[in-house]
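Lab notebook, bench 4. Still working through the backlog of constructs that have no structural model yet. Next entry is a single chain of 365 residues. Request: give me the structure tokens for it.
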Amino acid sequence: MAERAHFLAASGWDGADIIPLAGDASTRSYARLRHKGRQAMLMHQPQGAESAIAPADADEAARRALGYNAMARLAGADCRRFAAVSDFLRAQGLAAPAIHAADFPQGWVLLEDLGDALYADVLAQGGDEERLYKAAVEVLACLHRDRAPRELAPGIPLFAYDDIALIAETDLMLEWFLPLALGRKASESEYRDHRELWRAALRAIAGDEPVFVHRDYHAQNLLWLPERTGLQRVGLIDFQDAVAGSRAYDLISLTEDARRDVPPELGEAATLHYLGAMRGQGTPLDEGRFRAEMAVMAAQRNAKIVGIFARLYARDGKRRYLSYLPRVWGYLERDLSHPLLADLKSWYDNTLPKERRTLPELESA
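Model written out:
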């Protein structure tokens, strides 16, 4: 509290009303500030050893030595990265919050308040799904017009979402969900076979130049700002883990949302609108190749999310995440039906058959 008071005083917000906001799955906390007719958001990220990030050219051994965040290319406690991503997005003409002040060593950031109109809430209140989703994919088309930058700011690289990171994420399925489902740890041979199958699937879609990837682009991290126009109608938050990777990844995050049902017809309409927007700006995609990329990235993301939600339950005691697992497994089962993923589908069917994908704990979650 003393750190916070000092930061607010130094930033010109001494005496502001502080209204804490509900947290999410991360260690960050947020509060809304009101002071003399002004409004802003205060973000705090506790600092610690997890803020260590391996250099962009670090090999797998060096990243593994630093832990999961370095393996998966997560920002950890690095608030500088949050500010750099925000500045990059605003430079593209997008509605990320402006950074008003920051104390990076202590983890305090004062930022523009974009309001409370999360896509998830607007849609729950009867908002026009197709309108909002089409606006969201237009933002992605804008971001995918150019190759990803090497740096977000001097000294802050935009890390590659490489195979090391992607496979470290799919390992979470074996590390956290499999023990809950089977009552035992995954064997070394199961890890080995699972990783090799994922490497083969990722190789099959490799080759395109990377683009900026928000990494968590869904209805809980987008705000609807109808008083604005064009791309500015979509507010962007929770982007600190951005990487350089596949064009398909954020589209899949949006259309296979772990926390809300997205009807297949809405996902298809959003995909077609995205492909049309890419053509319209002179950056057309090969639709067949792109849909194959979508299938692989969707399966990778959903396998990861199954592991993350199992971890949030088993390690952190956050039972509500169990209730999302049937939806995510439903997405994953659909994704695995793509011919490129036939071998992975067989592995999952043999190792984690359908009757093992519904945990007993779900009945009381």
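Notes after review: The chain has a mean pLDDT of 94. The domain at 1-44+78-113 is CATH 3.30.200.20 (Phosphorylase Kinase; domain 1). Flag for follow-up if needed.
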